[in-house]
Amino acid sequence: MMTAEKTRKTKSSAAFDVEGIRRDFPILSIRVHGKPLVYLDNAATTQKPLAVLDAIDRYYREENANVHRGVHALSELATKKYEDSRETVRAFINAASSKEIIFTRGATDSINLVAATFGRKYLKPGDEVVITGLEHHSNIVPWQLICEEKQAKLRVAPINSSGEVELAEFEELLSEKVKIAAISHISNALGTVNPIRRMIEAAHRFGIPVLIDGAQGVPHLNVDVLALDADFYAFSSHKIFGPTGLGVLYGKERLLDALPPYQGGGDMIRSVTFEKTIFNDLPYKFEAGTPHIEGAIGLGTALEYLHTFDWEAVVRHEHALIRSAADRLSEIEGVRIIGTAKEKAGVVSFVIDGIHPHDIGTILDQEGIAIRTGHHCAQPVMDRFGIPATARASFAFYNTVDEVDVLVQGIQKVKKVFGYV
Q1: Could you say which residues of the chain have pLDDT below 70?
Q2: Distance between terminal CA atoms of the chain?
Q3: Strand ranges (E), 141-206
Q4: 159 by DSSP, 3-state: which?
Q5: Sign of CA dihedral 295, 301, 307, 311
Q6: Among the residues of 307-373, which ranges form H helices?
Q7: Which whole-number Å values give the CA distances from 249 to 151, 278, 364, in the listed order?
Q8: pLDDT in tens, 340-360
Q9: Is 143 helix (H, G, I), strand (E, B) or coil?
């Protein structure tokens, strides 16, 4: 189990060896259409190391039982591993207490939880919620729904032509009318890293709590929720080398304590009669029903695996990859990078004049290259740049400079197919 002294802020003695890392991920050695897989779709989901695969397999083979409800040995073991993973998550993001770590179905579920419960308790007609023009649909639609229900207003801080939030305009939107702000840490569509510490400080001057959509933040940055003073922070397991179907909501204990339950059912109650229900303590008040036990165990294992690396070296490696990709793609005639923020992580989005992104993705797939094409669940971002979609290459620490070379060669092949070269 990871302790507070063993977060990513402490360097490991293990050297950063990308080829050694790749051997930990079995899927990276497969071939697609007869070509070695070049997996550049990490913003959608990351691949899983052997340690995670083994932990999930071991759970079902040797440890499978429901948690929190049994006195038999298997249930006690499963419960311990489940709660150990909660503590590992707590230490990984440096939360003050494991009570502040809620397991959900994903970052989307985490944001919906806050929008529904916070909105139900605090929003009233005429109030405002502030988001930015960079947001994923998961950090737009839940706020639209609760604002419509409560007759509140959704305000949007615009982005500039580089894909950066206009900070002055964001700060101008803040007032006593604003009850909460919801901001992405890193844009999934452009890779823009928002200055969330400054944005949180600005919101807090008005007493406004802030939710951070960290689905792209946690995989690429050393996230310390106490240092950020984030009120809520949401992320997904599957984007940080863990299983799908599991997410995390961090929330300050006093804020979570004040919110009503999100769903009703087993395990989130202390007692039930037909006249009255008394709800459980944190974090269980927000975890109705049988949880994603093996998912939590897998996530905990993934975070322990990540702890074996020098995170500063990981960040340097990833930054080198996206700089190389952006520079080399920009040199290709007809290719245009979408999103040129000064601070970026993980993502290079681009278009090629006269070629639809879906065609780009299809041809690259034939070369064994997996990228994502479309609006990336960020249609307002696409609208801002006057395009329907982009091709998006997204990187993780197991990607290599050689794979950037293959991507560049693949794009030259795309142009050749369409008669450009």
Answers
A1: 1-16, 268, 421
A2: 55
A3: 153-157, 178-184
A4: strand
A5: negative
A6: 311-330, 357-366
A7: 26, 23, 36
A8: 999 999 999 999 999 999 999
A9: helix
Question: Are the CB atoms for 411 and 329 separated by under 8 Å?
Answer: yes
pLDDT at 133: 97
Query: How many residues are listed for the chain in this entry?
Result: 421
Indicate which residues carry an active-site annotation. 377
* Maximum Cα–Cα distance across the chain: 75
Exposure string over 129-161, b if 16+ CB within 10 A, otherwise e: bbbbbbbbbbbbbbbeebbeebebeebbbebee
pTM: 0.94
| Mean pLDDT, the chain, whole residue set | 93
Q: Which two tokens stand for residue 81?
A: 């591993």
**Architecture field, domain 4-49+309-417:** Alpha-Beta Complex (3.90)
Where do the structural domains in the chain lie, given as residue ranges? 4-49+309-417, 55-306
Query: What is the per-residue pLDDT across 104-136, written as a single tens digit (0 to 9) for each?
Result: 999 999 999 999 999 999 999 999 999 999 999
User: On the CB side of 387, how many CA atoms lie within 13 Å of its CA?
Assistant: 26
Quote the pLDDT of residue 323.
95
Residue pointed to by tokens 């560049």? 408
Q: Is residue 392 within 8 Å of 43, Cβ to Cβ?
A: yes
Task: At 26, list the tokens.
Answer: 């079995």
Of 318, 317, 394, the C-alpha closest to 349 is 394
**Top-tier CATH class for 55-306:** alpha beta
Parallel, antiparallel, or unpaired for β 247-251 and 232-236?
antiparallel
